[in-house]
Amino acid sequence: MSQQLVLAVGYAVPRAGLPAAASFRRWAEAALRGARRRKPAELAIRIVGLDEGRALNRDYRGKDYATNVLSFPAELPPGIALPLIGDLAICAPVVLREAAEQAKRPRDHWAHLTVHGVLHLLGYDHIDDGEAEAMETLETRILAGLGIADPYA
Questions:
Q1: 129-145 vs 106-121: helix axis angle to the nearest 10?
Q2: Using the 8-state DSSP alphabet, how is residue 65 labeled?
Q3: SS3 at position 6
Q4: Beta strand segments in the chain, E
Q5: Helices H, strands E: what count in the chain?
Q6: 88-114: string of b/e by CB count within 10 Å (b at 16+)?
Q7: Secondary structure percentages of the chain, helix, strand, coil, to 5
Q8: pLDDT, tens digit, for every residue of 62-92?
Q9: Which conformational region is residue 22 in: left (phi greater than 0), alpha (psi within -120 to 50 degrees), or beta?
Q10: What are the two backbone dihedrals, phi and then psi, of residue 134, each rounded to the nearest 5 degrees?
Q11: In this structure, are residues 9 and 21 in contact, taking their beta carbons and an 8 Å threshold?
Q12: Bridge partners of residue 87, in order along the sequence
């Protein structure tokens, strides 16, 4: 699938100790496969710090705090057919804090949030209980394929 995924990973924070772009590619590809997306996909992942994470969450969701992952699905004009599915902003300090609080391996939490964000870009959501259960089941299956335990257990 790698030739079908165009992925840009940018680090707005020091790169030391964070997953490499190749890891984000592996996790995004797993999400696309798990969601049975057969068409090419393009997306960008930006790893941000607390200030940028908070500003993005405030400006786009009206919530004045940094959150773990924000998904920005592509909103293409009618008639424009591009493989662009959108952008993710993942807040490194929040991911690392949550992994510690939840006693998870940081790498596993990074993988989970990448998969979670890509599924949002593909239209999955967790607004109501039925959607949440379907999305969590799919995430758990994708992560199991990566050797990662159920993040909701």
A1: 130
A2: S
A3: strand
A4: 5-11, 41-48, 69-73, 84-91
A5: 5, 4
A6: bbbbbebbbebbeeeebebebbbbbbb
A7: 45, 20, 35
A8: 999 999 999 999 999 999 989 999 999 999 9
A9: alpha
A10: -65, -45
A11: yes
A12: 44, 72
Q: Between residues 80 and 53, which one has the greater pLDDT?
A: 53
> 19 is written with which tokens?
């997953």
- Surface-to-core class of residue 15, CB atoms within 10 Å of its CB (0-12 exposed, 13-18 middle, 19+ buried): exposed
Q: How far apart are CA 123 and CA 141, in angstroms?
A: 18
Q: How many CA atoms are closer than 13 Å to the CA of 48, on its beta-carbon side?
A: 21
Q: Using alpha carbons only, how large is the chain's radius of gyration in Å?
A: 15
Please give the model's pTM, rounded to 2 decimal places: 0.95
Q: Which residues pair with 42 in a beta bridge?
A: 6, 84
Element housing 97 (H / E): helix 92-101
Name the residue among 60, 48, 71 with its Cα closest to residue 122: 71
